Amino acid sequence: MHANVGGGHGGRWLRPLLLAAASALALAGTSQAALAVLDRDARPAVAAHARSGDGIAATVTHAAEVGRPHEHDQGNSGGGQGFRMPLSMMPGMPPEGQVRMSVALTLANTAAVGRPIDPPGEFTLTDDRTGQSWPAIADTFGGLPRLGPATVVNGTLFFDLPPVPSSAQLVVDWKRDGRSYRLAVPRESGFTEHSHES
């Protein structure tokens, strides 16, 4: 004798319950996709300058591939950016198939008291097009633990990453005090734009 699952009072409510459950699952999937889009759109806008809530201001002033010949080396005294540290002076070498990027930063403490600072730990280089990011592998800030009040310091962070395609949209992500900021990487700095995709 077979049980009549679809009949009686229980069967009358079974179909609406199944339809409601299916609708809830579909809505949950749609909500997750919408949240992903909203999360991407909610990212801070890319800016030339940023200031954290505790008064540290940051600006990216220059970016280039380390060791790449530039205008000064080629006799154009008006376009040179000064001496660039060769790879032989850097700790280690980039892994095969990667390039080393230097990103120069100016950091200023606009507060009336000293602030702890960790440039290699706070800044990462990101391709805004793909979301891929790279941590700093070296820096010239010399392990600076604090930035005194009304103090400005210049330094450089170094990153190893695949050759930069012409379609890349490089930005510097800065995370400090639980907040995120995004700094523009000056395209006029003159790093090599590789035509092939990484």
Strand content: 25-35%
Helix content: 10-25%
CATH class of the largest domain, named Mainly Beta
CATH topology of the largest domain: Immunoglobulin-like
Silhouette = extended
Please work out how many helical segments DSSP would assign: 2
The domain count comes to 2
Keywords: Signal
Protein name: DUF4352 domain-containing protein
Signal peptide: 1-33
Labels describing this entry:
2 domains, 2 helices, extended, 198 residues, 5-stranded mixed β-sheet, Immunoglobulin-like, 5-stranded antiparallel β-sheet
Q: How are the SSEs ordered, and which strands pair?
A:
Layout: H1 8-41, E1 46-47, E2 49-51, E3 56-65, E4 99-109, E5 115-116, H2 119-122, E6 123-127, E7 133-135, E8 138-139, E9 146-147, E10 152-161, E11 170-176, E12 179-184
Structure description:
The chain has 198 residues and is of the alpha+beta class. It has 2 domains: 9-42; 47-189, Immunoglobulin-like (Sandwich). Helix content is 19%, strand content 32%. It contains 2 helices and 12 strands, in the order H-E-E-E-E-E-H-E-E-E-E-E-E-E. A 5-stranded mixed beta sheet has the order 1-12-11-6-7. It has a 5-stranded antiparallel beta sheet with strand order 2-3-4-10-8, with no helix packed on it. Strand 6 and strand 7 form a beta hairpin. The longest helix is centred in the first third of the chain and has 34 residues, at 8-41. The termini are far apart.
